[in-house]
Design goal:
alpha/beta, 230 residues
Length: 230
């Protein structure tokens, strides 16, 4: 099983429906802060189920939801197919978009599942698809010194605030015996220091790279915003 296979399968990465709902609500709120105008064209690359994508679409002119897992794309089309501003695409369809078509590209909780070369190629792709002066936001970057224990502690804190603490405790136990844990042990997750990810983004042709508050509930992970100089 690969990471793509995992996300294409039934999994229990979210400990309860409430956890999933609150997670995607928070991601939508964080993403909307980066939309430059109501006329913007936005790509959410690696969007997952994006349960609050309707809120994001209401803040821009066009929202592309890119997801590699076919089963997730089917769910997205079933949920948001009636919203004209939302288009669900595969990674291959992102490559077919017109160059310079996008004002904002967001990749949240994506790059930990990619190798360094895969990310380097995506950075070149994103730069081509962005307008001159458009922005890239890479969120939820995992530093090398953030452990699974820190992630678990942050989840429990989020669960306490969100009212699903019991479900979170049970979910952590299930995760210990899940395919996610096995894949994480076999393939690992890609981690980057702040200096390393900034260097990689700069090598992709971006400038004005700035650290931003992280998306989601875990402040120990990192978010960076960068500009396509054109």
């Amino acid at each position: 099983m690969s990471w793509r296979d995992f996300w294409n399968s039934e999994h229990a990465i979210y400990v309860s429906p409430r956890h999933k709902l609150l997670h995607y609500r928070q991601i939508a709120t964080d993403l909307i802060r980066h939309i430059p105008s109501p006329e913007a064209v936005v790509l959410d690359h690696g969007c997952g189920e994006a349960l609050a994508a309707d809120r994001v679409a209401a803040a821009c002119a066009r929202l592309y939801l890119c997801e590699a897992a076919p089963s997730v794309r089917e769910k997205l089309r079933a949920t948001f197919g009636a919203i004209p501003a939302i288009t669900v695409v595969s990674p291959e369809e992102v490559e077919a978009l017109d160059d310079g078509a996008l004002d904002l590209v967001v990749a949240n909780s994506l790059i930990q599942y990619l190798g360094r070369e895969e990310l380097a190629q995506l950075l070149l792709l994103w730069r081509r698809k962005l307008k001159p002066g458009g922005h890239l936001v890479i969120a939820d970057v995992i530093p090398p010194d953030v452990s699974a224990l820190t992630d678990a502690t942050q989840l429990l804190s989020f669960a306490w605030r969100g009212g699903f603490l019991i479900a979170a405790l049970g979910g952590l136990v299930r995760t210990a015996f899940s395919d996610y844990r096995k894949l994480r042990a076999e393939y690992g997750l890609s981690t980057y220091s702040a200096a390393a990810i900034v260097t990689l983004i700069r090598e992709g042709g971006f400038d004005e790279i700035e650290r931003q508050p992280n998306f989601g509930h875990n402040p120990h992970r990192m978010t960076f915003r960068a500009r396509n100089p054109g």
